[in-house]
Here is the input.
Amino acid sequence: LSTTTKFEISPKCSNLYELSKTQKKYHLSTSSSDLIKENTIITSNPCPSGLGFSSSTPYLCFSGQAVVIIYLGGPKDFNYIPPSLVQYGSELFAMAFIDHPNGIPIPSEIGAFPKLRFFAGLDSLQGTIPSEIGNAKQLHFLYLQDSRIHGTLPSEIGQANSLNQILFHHLSVTGTIPSEFGLLTQLEFLNFIHETHFLEGTIPSQFSNLASLKEFISYYSSFQGDLPKLTSLRAFVLNAAFMQSELPLQLLDNIQLTRFALVGNNIHGTLPSEYCLLVNLLSFEIGINILSGTIPSELGNMKNLLCLRLHRNLFTGTIPKEIENLKKLEMAELDSNNLFGEFPSGFHRFTSLTS
Here is the structure.
């Protein structure tokens, strides 16, 4: 790695930088050939002296034009960040903590590294997100996954204005989304994914300032009120969010949308035919709501659909014949409505349909 390396990690991980765990081995490289075991230290050049790391410490250190520190598991009593790290942190590019049994606090020093672009904690951290994160002015990627992280989201995150991706998975954070998130004008990916109740309140109106936001995904939050106007979205997912409203029309300007999901809410009213103008959608998921009325025949215009989920609503009438135009469908869920009549006969010719 070097400071000139293009460093991008999408929520699905890019080919440039992969991070996966297989039988206590970690793949962390720009090629597909290097498997790195736990509790080893590897350097492309000698690490800066004085960091206090040895072959017995659970760190990986890549150095050169950039320094990357990876913390992989390790002794249960290892629960601190070496103080000497801050002294040599002027070249620190990336920091990741993976699989610590007890969890260590998110280091408040996160804001002391002027070149830090990547920070990740996967099943290894505990405590609250420190307000000092706002001082990490070059931070591009923030990924936290650990139920031991609690408290509220600090408003200071909005000061880390280089953030491009925020992925918060399975945290125990509660409260509201600070309006200061609207200051993150470089933000493209924002995920709040949990298995139980997570955030509440409204999605701040300041989100309308996020002109670069391509993906907003949230599971198990409790959002109310109007959605802000967002115009660059490619994926919008708000599942199990307990929303009580009609289908939002303010998102229809996102003609580039490929995924739209509002599953498991209290969405009522009808399915506006205007939604069928989102012809780039690959996945349209609005099941488990209380939508009523008929399924619009214009649905047949969404010819790129791979996944259609309208199940467990109150739709009435027949399944429109135009649905036969959706020849790329791989999954269609229309059950548990008040539909009648025959299923369109052309469906049996869909070779891609698996369920």
Observations:
- The radius of gyration is 23 Å.
- The chain has a mean pLDDT of 78.
